[in-house]
Design brief:
Layout lengths: L1 H10 L3 E2 L12 E8 L2 E8 L2 E4 L5 E3 L6 E3 L13 H29 L1 H6 L8 H12 L12 H24 L2 H6 L2 H4 L4 H27 L3 H10 L7
Helix pairs in contact: 1-2, 2-5, 5-8
Length: 239
């Protein structure tokens, strides 16, 4: 819900800036479209480079009925263009994420589980162990320590849970005019409200990549057995 509603919000102004205010013509990233005869050409502009994205980004709809949109209708919530509705969905889902994350961190820190399962052990940080872990992942045969996670898993989960998700929540608050007026530091720590918006977008990309890699590795490592372990208890325990 957060991702498609966030894309709906982004479509209202599909450009990213740094600093406190947006300055037209100075975006470091922009998704747009231009008319080419009777058709529409989509483009992605990164810095001084431009890439044609016709059929992927910049427009949405069947031929002859296309409309200019950064992300197409099938990726947004709602499918039609509505900034207000997108914000309502995004805020509702953000409450679920924020409360769930706070509860997860509180329980994990109180019981010590986060330190035991996510912090790398000294043995994992040995150069030989790091190299072996990287090679195993490149071969799509990641090591699975009994009762825990390997080094790359721990680092990935730790970065997402302890840094990316809190930064996403904080940057989202910084973009709220009411929150920013009451607590200007929420935007200041990112270098301005527009920088916070850019950080929010980049954090979204990190989470999408994390989720995709997570699902790929899951499908490559006995998913049915792992699902049974997650739902029924210890591996091999039928109770």
């Amino acid at each position: 819900m957060l991702l498609p509603s966030g894309l709906q919000i982004f479509n209202a102004h599909p450009a990213l800036y740094t600093g406190e205010t947006s300055r037209f013509g100075s975006a470091w990233m922009e998704i747009g479209s231009r008319e080419r005869g009777e058709d529409i050409e989509g483009y992605l502009r990164l810095g001084g480079r431009e890439f044609t994205t016709t059929g992927v980004l910049g427009w949405s709809g069947a031929p002859g009925e296309r409309e200019k949109r950064a992300f197409p209708a099938w990726t947004t919530l709602p499918g039609y263009q509505s900034l207000a509705t997108g914000r309502n969905w995004h805020l509702a889902a953000a409450w679920v994420l924020g409360l769930a994350l706070a509860g997860y961190l509180a329980v994990g820190l109180a019981g010590g589980r986060l330190w035991r399962t996510l912090l790398p052990t000294p043995g994992m940080l040995a150069p030989r162990a790091i190299l072996a872990d990287l090679v195993a992942h490149l071969k799509l045969r990641p090591p699975a320590p009994e009762g825990g996670y390997n080094l790359l898993q721990r680092l990935a989960y730790l970065i997402v849970v302890a840094f990316v998700l809190p930064a996403m929540i904080l940057s989202g608050l910084a973009m709220s005019p009411a929150v920013h007026a009451a607590a200007p530091w929420t935007g200041d720590i990112f270098g301005g409200r527009q920088s916070a918006r850019s950080a929010h977008f980049l954090g979204t990309l990190i989470l999408v990549l994390f989720f995709t890699a997570h699902m790929v590795m899951l499908l490559l490592s006995q998913p049915l057995q792992r699902l049974r372990t997650m739902t029924l208890g210890r591996r091999g325990d039928p109770s």
